[in-house]
Fold this sequence. Notes:
This protein is α/β, with parallel strands linked by helices. It has helices at about 5-40, 65-75, 85-90, 160-175, 210-225, and strands at about 50-55, 95-105, 110-115, 120-125, 125-130, 135, 150, 180-185, 190-195, 200-205, 235, 245-250. The longest helix is centred in the first third of the chain and has 40 residues, at about 5-40.
Amino acid sequence: MPAGRRAFHSQxxxxxxxxxxxxxxxxxxxxxLDLRLKDALFSDRNxxxxxxxxxxxxxxIDKKEVAALAGxxxxxxxxxALDLHIxxxxxxxxxxxxxxxxxxxxxxxxxxxxIEHVPAAYxxxxxxxxxxxxxxxxxxxxxxxxxxxxxxAPHDSLAPEVYTKAVLFMRELKRADLQMxxxxxxxxxxxxxxxxxxxxxxxxxxxxxxxxxxxxxxxxAAIRGSGFDLQAAEYVDLRYDIGFAVKERAKExx
Length: 254
């Protein structure tokens, strides 16, 4: 091989080796800088959560409980790397929390915004129903004593239906100067109303969504001005096309 060609070949191989070394060094430097940057951004030594701000018009949610929960899950953790979904799901497990939002406020603060459940009725024995959220929730009722109507049904999924019917029943009863204390939808989808005086009105099944309300209207129209003593009835069965079946209370009940 001529000397000139050998010298050119050696120079090309040298440049290739130098370029390869440069590429390797560049990759190593990039990986090193990336690891250092991730360590700087996401290590718990940097940007730790130091403060929690709780926002919202809260009457029943204990802010100390919320702060303690946030502290257990987030205190000292790197704010940039923090998974807010975990904290939000934990907040939604608190009985009175209807909605929760968590935001990062750099460099070291979490802002928690909460909306409370607004109870519209009692649900079965140990729950409450939030009509705005259309949701049943189960707080500690030993600390709650509002005079609300009680709704009953076999499953929580029936709560929106029972509440909607209860509102319609309540409007009709109010026109007759009557109040109810309870609405029940039983296993065979039969509606019953318990009045504040203790009398039960059996409305029956409501297959088309209007039958129960129509029966209640018919009964209230029939007793208006008739002198019928509703106080003396243990229950009134409205499931008849003509008339009603009435069971009187025992004398001691009256």
